[in-house]
Amino acid sequence: MPKITYIEHNGTAHTVDVPEGLTVMEGAVNNNIPGIDADCGGACACSTCHVYVDPDWVAKLPERDDMETDMLDFAYEPDAERSRLTCQIKVTADLTGWWSRCRRSRFEGKPDHSGRSAPRGREMTRPVVGVTAFLHRVDGSFDAQICGNRTPEAVGEVADCLPLILPGQPTTSETGELLELLDGLVLTGARPNVHPEYYGVTETEAHGPFDRGRDRVTLPLVRAMIDAGKPVFGICRGIQEMNVAFGGTLHPEIRDEPGRMNHRMPKGETDPEIIFRKRHLVSFRDGGAFHALIGDTCTVTNSLHGQAVWQPGSRVIVEGRAEDDTIEAISIADARSFALGVQWHAEFEAAADPVGQALFTAFGDAARKAKANHGN
Ligand code: FES
């Protein structure tokens, strides 16, 4: 029987007997060879059976057809000469002694921003990330769940995950169901604030407006996702939700405190370039989660908010503060996955901004890991 050697990207070699008539991919899958996932089952629609062929063997294999060549465009770091899809090669006696190096695991890969539409198999393998919407009354007459474009774009294009907009409707969005479905959660910024009843304060006009439905969906979901070891990224209202979810409090109008700046959106401005312009410094905890991720102890940000994190919750670690001491970045202690919150709008131009890019890329990597660990 032909013997074929598969070499993992880390150098581990597996030499196995593969019966003639099977494909080289089937030989790998039947023998649980890491790095050959074959998500599409050999339909030449996923490229997850990609290998690099030993140079001595390139000319000995049957030539690629057009379908395989096209699909290789979607492989991770394809090589013009040596890349092959193992599902397209039948095992024959001539292949005895053939060896090939398995592609690197997708979890080590970078997002593919080729701009081409993804093949079916690839879409199915991306982690699903919930992106929270918020309640908005349109034209003063009917209620809608809305979500700005920037966050789903950053989740799709920078984190390389599939964004799924979540309505803040507790009657339709049950925590257990969402927990099972989602590989990650991004809590977006929103006009309505977290209701103060969740941090033990009586409601005043300054605390509003509210979105009680979103509170009821997100607060338990944040805790459940973090307990399950799935990544959570809180942005603007999202950092505030993470803090409240772990027992912290919010200040309803941070600029009213002595020495604090006005972090609110410029009044009457409609140009996003001006609204989201970077305005103040954030300094990160030396050796903390942001320092490690960004490689620096400060950045300039664009935060736009009236409320702010006040007393940190029980597991909330303050990772960064603005020049006026306002809390702008947090992490959650003992989280088994990415669990970071930022007061600024990291989603704005996330692909171009080094800090936004680092955050969304790390979040996407964590979502891929969570997906692999939870077998979604
Ligand atoms: S198994 Fe999907 S392309 Fe080979």
Figure out the total of helices.
11
CATH architecture of the largest domain: 3-Layer(aba) Sandwich
Residue stretches low in confidence (pLDDT < 50, at least 5 long) are 104-123
- Strand composition percent: 15-25%
Say how many strands there are: 18
Q: What ligand species are in this complex? A: FE2/S2 (inorganic) cluster
Counted up, domains total 2
How much is the radius of gyration in Å? 24 Å
Largest sheet: 9 strands, mixed
Give the CATH superfamily of the largest domain. Class I glutamine amidotransferase (GATase) domain
Mean pLDDT: 87
Alpha-carbon distance between the two ends: 36 Å
Q: Report the CATH C-level class of the largest domain.
A: Alpha Beta
- What name does the CATH topology of the largest domain carry? Rossmann fold
* CA-based shape: elongated
Structural class: alpha/beta
Major beta sheet, strand line-up: 9-6-10-11-18-17-16-13-14
Defining key terms:
376 residues, Rossmann fold, 11 helices, 5-stranded mixed beta sheet, Ubiquitin-like (UB roll), 26% helix, elongated
Blueprint (SSEs and pairs):
Blueprint: E1 3-7, E2 13-17, H1 24-30, E3 50-53, H2 55-58, H3 66-72, E4 83-85, E5 99-102, H4 120-125, E6 128-132, E7 134-138, E8 142-146, H5 150-158, E9 162-166, H6 175-181, E10 184-187, H7 212-227, E11 232-235, H8 237-245, E12 250-251, H9 272-275, E13 280-284, H10 289-294, E14 298-301, E15 308-309, E16 316-322, E17 327-332, E18 339-342, H11 354-374
Parallel strand pairs: 1-5, 6-9, 6-10, 10-11, 11-18
Antiparallel strand pairs: 1-2, 3-4, 3-5, 7-8, 12-15, 13-14, 13-16, 16-17, 17-18
Helix pairs in contact: 6-7, 7-8
The protein binds FE2/S2 (inorganic) cluster.
